[in-house]
Design goal:
The complex is a heterodimer of chains A (about 240) and B (about 325). Chain A is mainly α. Chain A has 14 helices and no strands. The longest helix of chain A is centred in the middle third of the chain and has 31 residues. Classes of the chains: A mainly alpha (about 240), B alpha/beta (about 325). At the A-B interface, helix 6 of A face helix 2 and helix 3 of B.
Amino acid sequence: MYVTVLLGDSEMLAAYTDMLSKMPTGFMEIFGLNPETLGTVEGYLAWAVFSYSALIIAVFAVIAGLNVTANEEDAGIMDVLLSLPVPRWRVVIEKLAAYSVMLVGIIAMSFVALVLAEQTTEYSVETGLLFQGFLNMIPLNLFVMAFTAFVSALVRGRNTAAVIAIVFVIASYLIDSIGGMLGGGIADVLRQLSIFHYFDPEPVLHTGLAWPNFLGILAAAALLLGGSLWAFNRRDVGL
Amino acid sequence: MNNKLPVIRSDDLTKVYRSRQGDTLALDSLNLEVRPGEIFGYLGPNGAGKTTTIRMLLDLIRPTRGTAEILGLDARAESVAIRRRIGFLPGELSLWKARTGRQVVQYIASVRGMPSTAYADELAERLALDLSRRVRDYSSGNRRKLGLVIALMHEPELLILDEPTNGLDPLVQQTFNQLMREARDAGRTVFLSSHLLGEVQAICDRVGILKDGRLKAVETVERLTHVDFRWVRLQFREAVPAATMARLERLPGASDVDVAHHTVSLRLTGDFMPLLDAVDGLYIEDIRVEEPTLEEVFLTYYGNNGATPSRAGTRKVMEVL
């Protein structure tokens, strides 16, 4: 809806850009707006679609990560599950795999919706680049899901795990945004610690995927998966 | 498996829960053997360490020290193989609330690789459980029944049941007892925890008594209920003279002597002949002898730091339990 309404024609985009450009630069950057590229369709998509969608889907990723072990453990269902001939690692792997498929499905549906919406506007972005833009969202959200699953396996309490995961996502986002606004020195160093720093959607719409970032985030997610397996396998369950 | 091997064996099994408030010794050096084909009652009040033991046997929690073997397999290293061969009912059963009983049964059956759920249907029928209802709509008793169906439906070699009859009505408890006896008759082993002594007395072959994380005693139910005292009530035709009362109170082996009208009640250890000698000359209308209940036997092992259990004391302690 966003895309269809706001990108309907060049006048609408210009008016919209004009409105946003009156905001203080720092304020814009906190909300992920790039003042230099906002007036372009790619800049708009990077902000309105990819940055925000990634955040919204990250909420799903946190919920999915909690569903790997924390929710069923908290509800006491894990006792029944682990009384069956199922190794603990399989519980973690199978649930993460199932939620990963759902995650990819949600991102794929978002891609199809955007492509369809694009047909109703006067703008066009190369479909291959749009596809890569959506592809770029997958590692980030897999990372958030694996991080939540890891924290759940480590700290056991569902509420504690949820708070840690949510704070992590919000803090990462803000560190990247505020770091970008301040620029230079320690701000740049801090940005390196944010997962959102490696998920930079705008260049993807111009030049395609940044494979080192893409693979790096996937590798980090895989490490967290390994950590989840290790932590869940070694501790007491259901206390 | 070798029929002589214990179905459950623990060696120095110990669990300490660590927290910021300090360490809690939940189970202390448990050495226990459960034999094939028996119903073993694991008896103790809340907090005695029963659930902790069961959770370690199932590898849900890990021992601080010691080992356990189930069906000859290491409870930690071979837990998946063990769980294939056992049925488990947790003390506090939680299931997927949005699913129907049948969906839960089918899911568990599929994980266990069972080709049919016909026996589960039969069990549900015997327990008067409607499998078409959602778990969220079940009463606590019906959830317990569903838990029993899940634990029993694959006819496991070993049943581990944590407080299995909690929330079951008396009629269903009878069915439960019957199911346990059938399991034993089929050569299976049952390990059930309880704080309900009557339940254990009704179906168990042997009982382990646990207190404060320590196993106090393991005995056959038969032997426990044949300890060397009984409650005796003598009803006389006339009032009991003070001299007779004095003799009874001094009588070796007699305690808790109580007189009401023409009736004397006492706890007697040893032979009857000294008692009859003590009331010599009085006309006895009736003699009633009661074996101690398991509650009272329980107290002799368990409570009052070894003090002799009295009827009133027993009732009081059982209320606390």
